[in-house]
Amino acid sequence: MPEYRIAPSILSADFARLGEEVRNVSEAGASLIHFDVMDNHYVPNLTIGPLVCEAIRPYTDLPIDVHLMVKPVDRIIPDFAKAGANIITFHPEASDHVDRSLSLIREHGCQSGLVFTPATSLDYLDYVLDKVDMVLLMSVNPGFGGQKFIPAMMDKARAARAKLDKYKEQTGRHIALEIDGGVKVDNIGELAAAGVDTFVAGSAIFGHPDYKAIIAEMHRQIALHTQAQ
Ligand SMILES: O=C(CO)[C@@H](O)[C@H](O)COP(=O)(O)O
């Protein structure tokens, strides 16, 4: 049975009270803090950088899961590692040398991962799986919170899990499968059954009045859909 993790996306938090929001979701049962970095170049929005990562670091003991939506990728990796990031993921299309960017993340003491937009092929994984700790599937187009889950991503999750399971059979190493975009209580169970183990949720958590209750309900749905497996 994999460890199922809920990662609130602070993109949907109240930025005026960010430290407090991070503390509140941490105490409410979150497993990771998902940190979306957008540059208004690779994606059409502009968010937060290493200074904000450093500022929230004292508010949680949970791993900070930095999702880079920036181009180029490499220059900013050491800054995030220094700011307290634990996991750093990036989009292969945004890196000049994917293998080098993955190595750079690990050299800086973080877990590494590749992110796939809805239309990006999983083939990018083929020659670099040994350097990947987490695969992040985007189930919306990157740039904004509060979008609708793209249904075709359910099959993509199954395909990704099959690839990662095959790799585990060969090597014994588990690679986490994370999904991001439109994750709610009504689809999280099916996603878990499809093989996803890490769930990013922004508006579903920060838009709910009781963070503890919504995270508990997400775990309940996951358990309901995976117990029989
Ligand atoms: O990276 C992104 C969007 O680009 C996501 O992390 C969103 O922030 C998820 O938000 P919801 O769809 O859960 O509201």
TrEMBL record:
Which Pfam families does this one have?
Ribul_P_3_epim (PF00834)
Cofactor note from UniProt?
Binds 1 divalent metal cation per subunit.
Q: Name one GO biological process term.
A: pentose-phosphate shunt
Q: Name one GO cellular component term.
A: cytoplasm
Q: Gene3D superfamilies recorded for this chain? A: Aldolase class I
Its catalytic activity?
D-ribulose 5-phosphate = D-xylulose 5-phosphate
Q: Which InterPro entries match?
A: Aldolase_TIM, Ribul_P_3_epim, Ribul_P_3_epim-like, RibuloseP-bd_barrel
Q: What is its EC number?
A: 5.1.3.1
Annotated family = Belongs to the ribulose-phosphate 3-epimerase family.
What protein name applies here? Ribulose-phosphate 3-epimerase
What would be the name of the gene that encodes this protein?
A: rpe
